[in-house]
Design brief:
The complex is a heterodimer. Chain A is an alpha/beta fold. Chain A has 33 helices and 10 strands. Chain A is about 65% helix and about 5% strand. The longest helix of chain B is centred in the N-terminal third of the chain and has 9 residues. Classes of the chains: A alpha/beta, B alpha+beta.
Chain lengths: ~750, ~80
């Protein structure tokens, strides 16, 4: 048997490429990454009518094959290096002229190709008739009209593609005008004589890329043969100077002009007939009159974003509660079955809590991606970017950043994990990284119990106002830090905003489900393993080294002493299986309470003795600057697992046992009475909790999404240093002003 | 017909692009999206803060920022004032 045929699917964004891919492959898809970049590589299997299996690769959507963003580079590298048997170029029949720009570049590259003329129904509605056979004749490649949404014409498309598969590459030569054609011929000659990269690229194509000043190709050329590459550069320089002198233009502009000229000349030959004027307003434009209206637009946008936020966090509540319930049950079951000891402790506090932590986010992520998929597939997200761009650009971000911030807790109570993943909708690298690194500053749902506890104790009279202030503070810090990153490590021109507002379309349910599922699964698969490992590590830090033998004996002795102090029947009553508080004698209740206190004391001592405890103690030297004692330090270490753990760890450190973040009155009382705590220190702590290292689930996601652990560590380190600096300023200033009361 | 920069165009005003005076990444992007000399454009509207601007080009809608529109020169064909909406 021969190897299965590989078909590459290419086309503009919004041309229906993903819809066609889903229609062809159904659920038989596999999502990965192209090596070294964060661009998704989607592959799938299509079973042809003949029963033959065909491998389909969905290339990133691009408008061109000239290196502009990483998508273009990925798409053309795939074509020249992997050499798929045939390319299906999907074009939007209702927007043919612009779509054919990419088609022309495929023709110039010479790949065996079929053009899939998609959205014939939309075109028809718009009074546009496209003569497919005439277009095929003029382009010199088969053209098959299809409607990907309803799976019309796809069988014929695949049959045509199969017939084209494996044909020899046959580059098209477009004339770029007298000035450039001469130069191109000379360059081609040199390239061919020296066999310069010709195993990968057609010679003319290569020469054109040099003229277009394509940095990736020029770098590759310089590595292959520096002397020849420099020669070609000289030709380009000559042509550039000449064009600048005579026409004040650039070779790349001339090349683009001629490509469009080529397209226009084809379309003029009775390919397109229009019933209406090309600029006629369609339903989509009428919707836009309202949705991007100067006054109504922002209001509707706020309502929609708020709706998405509510949808995500309200409807995911129930499945999240189920999962929590399930893991709570698992915890108890494991606790009951396993004998006491490190194994039990590790399984319960390390493994079950760790896995529970990962899976606990899954419903949230699914709902958020579902909501975003609706906004994205319908075309609304592009409008959000359009309306918000002016504001976000001031901070070196992009209009599309708004989504990630809101999901992360821009409306207090979100979650940075789906927020980080929401940055995928940003196509520009620097803006995306700046967003990615700052979304965790928002007040996520896990920080809220901590903030609520502290504001409740120390700012009780104005808690609501303080909480609102903290939301504003989070926005201000996130945007300013983003600006700082864009001025320093992510410095660079803002990515052009030249983008398309696609016509509004009703998303297909199947498309939404596939979209949601594949992103959710990626989260589980990628983040899961690392998070489990870190969870166990954190458990170990807070457990080892265990209390020395002597200490434990001392506490055991105290326990024995306590027991012998009571009459035998009371001891028996209190320690009997299934003893409940109610119905016990006062003496037994008293004994139980004392035993409990002893247990809590042991837990506190064990925590202080552990690696985390020692770290907390050692850090006191520095952390005093912000007013934090060792107990707070440990709690903050614990908060790296999840921010609400700050509360339960503080509870343990104050010998209160494990405090439930939802019911923290006992801890609130203790903090209120502790002389070390005062409003200034509490505010310093609030600031620190808001801005220090994101929880490790977020850190793992940042590293994954940014494509390198460097960024994950940066978020951990820089945020902690920054938060500490801020906390010290708050504390020192507050104390100096005598606000510590 | 007067030639003006795209930034100065008013809502619903149409024109034909006469020059795109920028090279590099931005110029490439502008051209990739179909904004080349000879293309007809109509200003469809502006974002709530007057920036970016939305254009009708070849039957689709494109957006670009004002400072990007500064590189595009247009020959205005009709000066339709914004009478509706």
């Amino acid at each position: 048997m021969t190897a299965p045929i590989t078909v590459a699917l290419a086309g503009n964004p919004n041309s229906g490429k993903t819809t066609l891919f889903n229609a062809l492959t159904g659920a038989r898809q596999h999502v990965g990454n192209y090596p070294g970049v964060t661009v998704e590589k989607k592959e799938g299997l299509h079973v042809a009518a003949s029963g033959e299996q065909i491998n389909i690769v969905d290339l990133p959507g691009t408008y061109s094959l000239t290196a502009y963003s990483v998508e273009e580079v990925v798409a053309r590298d795939y074509l020249v290096q992997e050499r798929p048997d045939v390319v299906i170029n999907i074009v939007d029949a209702s927007n043919l002229e612009r779509n054919l720009y990419l088609t022309t570049q495929f023709l110039e590259l010479g790949v065996p190709m079929v053009v899939a003329l998609n959205m014939m129904d939309v075109a028809e509605d718009r009074g546009i008739a496209v003569d497919a056979s005439r277009l095929a004749e003029l382009l010199g490649v088969p053209v098959v009209p299809i409607v990907a949404r309803s799976n019309k014409g796809t069988a014929e498309l695949m049959a045509t593609a199969m017939a084209q598969a494996g044909r020899a590459w046959n580059p098209l030569q477009i004339s770029y005008g007298e000035d450039l054609d001469g130069v191109l011929r000379s360059m081609e000659k040199e390239i061919e004589e020296r066999g310069f990269l010709t195993r990968l690229y057609p010679s003319r194509w290569l020469a054109v890329k040099y003229l277009e000043n394509d940095s990736q190709i020029r770098d590759r050329g310089a590595k292959e043969n520096a002397a020849l590459s420099a020669d070609l550069d000289r030709w380009v320089q000559g042509a550039t100077d000449h064009l600048q002198r005579t026409m004040e233009t650039y070779p790349e502009a001339i090349i683009a002009d001629h490509r469009y000229g080529y397209i226009k000349s084809i379309l003029r030959q009775e390919v397109i007939t229009r019933k209406y004027d090309a600029d006629r307003l369609y339903a989509s434009d009428r919707i836009d009159k309202v949705l991007t209206n100067r006054f109504l637009g922002p209001i509707i946008m706020l309502a929609i974003l708020f709706g998405l936020y509510n949808f995500t966090f309200t409807y995911s509540e129930l499945p999240v509660a189920w999962l929590e319930g399930f893991f709570g049950w698992l915890r108890e079951a494991a606790g009951a079955i396993l004998p006491d000891g490190y194994l039990k402790s590790m399984l319960v506090a390390g493994v079950i809590d760790g896995v529970g932590g990962v899976l606990g986010f899954v419903p949230l992520i699914m709902f958020m991606f579902f909501g975003i998929a609706i906004l994205e597939d319908s075309g609304y997200l592009a409008r959000v970017a359009f309306m918000m761009d002016r504001i976000f650009r001031m901070f070196g971000l992009h209009g599309s950043s708004v989504m990630a911030y809101i999901v992360s807790g821009g409306i207090a109570g979100g979650c940075a994990v789906p927020g980080v993943m929401a940055t995928r909708t940003l196509r520009s690298e620097r803006e995306r990284l700046a967003t990615l690194l700052t979304v965790s500053f928002m007040n996520c749902g896990a920080k809220l119990p901590v903030l609520a506890l502290l504001t409740g104790v120390f700012f009780a009279s104005s808690q609501a106002q303080v909480m609102f202030l903290l939301t504003l503070l989070a926005w201000a810090v996130a945007l300013l830090v983003a600006k700082f990153y864009r001025l320093t490590i992510l410095r660079g021109e803002s990515t052009p905003f030249v983008m398309e507002l696609p016509p509004y379309r009703l998303p297909t349910f199947r498309g939404l489900l596939i979209h949601t599922w594949e992103r959710t699964w990626q989260y589980i698969k990628k983040a899961g393993t690392v998070i489990l490992a870190i969870s166990i590590l954190l458990w170990a830090m807070m457990t080892f080294p265990g209390l020395p033998e002597g200490e434990r004996e001392r506490i055991d002795a105290q326990r024995q002493e306590l027991l012998t102090g009571y009459p035998a029947e009371v001891v028996q009553e209190a320690t009997a299986e299934g003893a409940e508080e109610e119905g016990l004698s006062p003496a037994a209740v008293d004994l139980l309470e004392r035993l409990d206190a002893l247990d809590r004391q042991e837990a506190e001592e064990a925590l202080e003795y552990s690696a985390a405890g020692r770290a907390g103690r050692a850090l006191e030297q520095v952390s005093w600057l912000a007013g934090f004692d060792w107990r707070t330090n440990i709690a903050l270490v614990g908060g790296f697992a999840a921010k609400e753990v700050v509360i339960s760890t503080l509870g343990t450190a104050y010998s209160l046992g494990e405090v439930d973040p939802e019911e923290s009155q006992s801890l609130a009382q203790t903090l209120a009475d502790d002389p070390n705590w005062n409003p200034v220190m509490a505010f310093a702590l609030i600031v620190f909790v808001m801005f220090y290292a994101p929880c490790f689930v977020t850190v793992v996601c940042i590293a994954r999404e940014a494509g390198s652990w460097k960024w994950g560590f940066l978020a951990m380190g820089c945020n902690t240093v920054f938060a500490f600096g801020l906390a010290v300023v708050v504390y020192q200033l507050g104390m100096a002003l005598g606000l510590g009361g | 017909m007067p030639r003006i920069m795209l930034r100065q165009m008013k809502r619903n005003q149409s024109g034909v692009i006469t020059a795109v005076k920028v090279a590099g990444e931005l110029g490439r992007r502008i051209r990739d999206m179909g904004l080349v000399p000879g293309t007809q454009v109509t200003v469809q509207g502006r974002a709530p803060l007057y920036d970016p601007v939305a254009l009708r080009v070849m039957g689709g809608t494109l957006t670009l920022r004002n400072n990007e529109a500064d590189h595009i020169e247009v020959e205005v064909t009709e000066a339709q004032e914004a009478t509706q909406s």
